[in-house]
């Protein structure tokens, strides 16, 4: 990939906020005893897990609790018990905007673009704490306001080019193909300047060519300092592209480890082929 195709490196988190106080080898996420019930059904049963920098894959049979865990991590559900820490900050039960401010965002299985707005407008909405969102600043367009707006526009164009969406900036987001909508969702997530992005089946229904493009972009982004926790049903894809794999079953973590260890674990084989897929 040429230099102009690669977005600017992610700023050092220690320069932009105080959340990244650990060393580069410290876990980004620490999940301790997280439980979630819906009525009489236990969706998460004391999940214990750490997520390190890089790409971590999250797999498990249907109903294992993967998306519920994502919802609890990002504030869309409040855990009934347990603790979630992003670096050393307790984010348990916080609202999604607060968690995004701390440095963690997510995508969804079904992309949630604003269909009637253009691709460019969708991207421009993503950055947080814009002066234009404040009532007074919207009336008084000072130099700071104008400079910030231009910076956001430049960054949006840069991200669009990185995901090869720049030729679609003026098109309605609802007119994009399914794969392009997934790219747009990842691009919007990155414009919040996160430390970690939770990807919920970003490759489902994507053709092989676009799949490889998305994976290549993710690998480039990891080199720029981003981390990813990835749900995906294609086990071979997870094993080939993730540094660490987490397997969930019946609402709990069954095992974690390097791909070569996980794929030979008899408990994993049983969970997929002979277990009770709740």
TrEMBL record:
Keywords: Amino-acid transport, ATP-binding, Nucleotide-binding, Transport. SMART domains: AAA. It holds the Pfam family ABC_tran. Residues 29-275 form the ABC transporter domain. One of its GO terms (biological process) is amino acid transport. CDD domains: ABC_Mj1267_LivG_branched. GO terms for molecular function: ATP binding; ATP hydrolysis activity. GO terms for cellular component: plasma membrane. InterPro entries: AAA+_ATPase (IPR003593), ABC_AA/LPS_Transport (IPR051120), ABC_transporter-like_ATP-bd (IPR003439), ABC_transporter-like_CS (IPR017871), BCA_ABC_TP_C (IPR032823), P-loop_NTPase (IPR027417). The keyword ATP-binding applies. Residues 1-20 have a biased composition (Polar residues). SUPFAM superfamilies: P-loop containing nucleoside triphosphate hydrolases (SSF52540). Residues 1-26 are annotated as: Disordered. Belongs to the ABC transporter superfamily. Probable component of a branched-chain amino-acid transport system. This is Probable branched-chain amino acid transport ATP-binding protein LivG. It comes from Halorubrum coriense DSM 10284.
């Amino acid at each position: 990939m040429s230099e102009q195709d690669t977005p600017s490196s992610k700023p050092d988190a220690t320069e932009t906020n105080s959340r990244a106080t650990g060393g580069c080898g410290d876990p980004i996420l620490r999940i301790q005893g997280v439980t979630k019930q819906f009525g009489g059904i236990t969706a998460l049963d004391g999940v214990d897990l750490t997520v390190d920098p890089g790409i971590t894959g999250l797999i498990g049979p249907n109903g294992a609790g993967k998306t519920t865990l994502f919802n609890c991590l990002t504030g869309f559900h409040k855990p009934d018990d347990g603790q979630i820490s992003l670096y050393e900050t307790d984010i348990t039960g916080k609202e999604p905007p607060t968690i995004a401010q701390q440095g963690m965002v997510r995508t969804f299985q079904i992309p949630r673009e604003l269909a009637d707005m253009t691709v460019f407008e969708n991207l421009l909405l993503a950055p947080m704490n814009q002066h234009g969102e404040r009532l007074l600043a919207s009336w008084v367009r000072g130099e700071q306001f104008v400079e910030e707006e231009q910076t956001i526009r430049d960054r949006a164009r840069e991200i669009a080019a990185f995901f090869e969406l720049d030729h679609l900036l003026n098109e309605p987001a609802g007119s994009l193909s399914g794969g392009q909508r997934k790219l747009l969702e990842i691009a919007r997530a990155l414009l919040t300047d996160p430390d970690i992005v939770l990807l919920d089946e970003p490759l489902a229904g994507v053709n092989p060519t676009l799949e490889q493009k998305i994976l290549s972009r993710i690998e480039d982004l990891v080199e720029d300092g981003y981390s990813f926790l990835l749900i995906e049903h294609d086990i071979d894809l997870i094993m080939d592209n993730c540094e660490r794999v987490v397997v969930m079953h019946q609402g709990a973590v069954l095992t974690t480890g390097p791909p070569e260890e996980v794929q030979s674990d008899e408990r994993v084989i049983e969970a997929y082929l002979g277990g009770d897929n709740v």
